[in-house]
Amino acid sequence: MKKSVLKAIVMAVVSLAGFTAASAMAQGKVEVQWLGQAAFKITTPGGKVIVTDPWLINNPITPAQYKDLDALGKIDVLLVTHGHGDHIADAPALARKHNIPVWLPGDLAQTLTTLGVLPAAQLPRFNKGGRVTPAPGIQVTAVRAEHSSVYVWTNPATTKPETHPGGEPIGYIIQLENGFKIWHMGDTGVFGDMKWIADYYKPDLVLAPIGGNFTMDPVDAAYAMRELIKPKFAVPMHYGTNPLAKGTADEFRKATEGASTRVFYMKPGEKIEF
Q1: Domains of the chain, start order
Q2: How does 152-162 read in b/e, with b if 16+ C-beta sit within 10 Å?
Q3: Which of 12, 62, 84, 153 has its CA 20 to 30 A from that of 240?
Q4: pLDDT tens across 31-73, in order?
């Protein structure tokens, strides 16, 4: 057999294999697991693991097994929306454990670098409108969230807590290998540009806070889903952990009656597939 013919056959086989792998990935499932508050473990069609806002060890509704950080298994991408303790708490420990960066608001990254919480190499900086590729096939875009952000740090020299600037809070548009898009809203109140974000990025699934007091309550969140965002799917989050955040899943269910969005009500530790 001539070398040119053999080379053509090999290239065809490689191309077919690549096409088959790409097709399988495109048809793969997206697994979303809620771990309480704004903490999710997302397993992508390509097998990547994304963890968001990991407040686990001291989270009152996180299942006991996940208070052991090893229970998460491998992590490829670690995202934090802002500096409050119920979002960033276990992120530094996970970053050290897996030797991966923490993606978070740029000014918060600067604060953590200055304080020596993590090395600068594990605190890449980006901000609203920034788009990064933290793992092959995964795109993450920082978008607006209407909230606040500080970072409380215990000074080892004095053993006293100190409050430091946390930058501005953000949400994330997370695009997976098969094109499926998840909008993790972080902590936010309702704002008009939710409609622009939805129109421009077209998220399939929205993870929306409903607790109230610090974020949208069930009525506000339902309005956002029904009138501004209109996603295919939504999961309520950020409720049930704090007496001040009184919003409930039942209130959100009633407020979203008749909406086109399919809402999934998850218990901490539960998984769903898309």
Answers
A1: 29-264 (3.60.15.10)
A2: ebeeeeeeeee
A3: 153
A4: 999 999 999 999 999 999 999 999 999 999 999 999 999 999 9
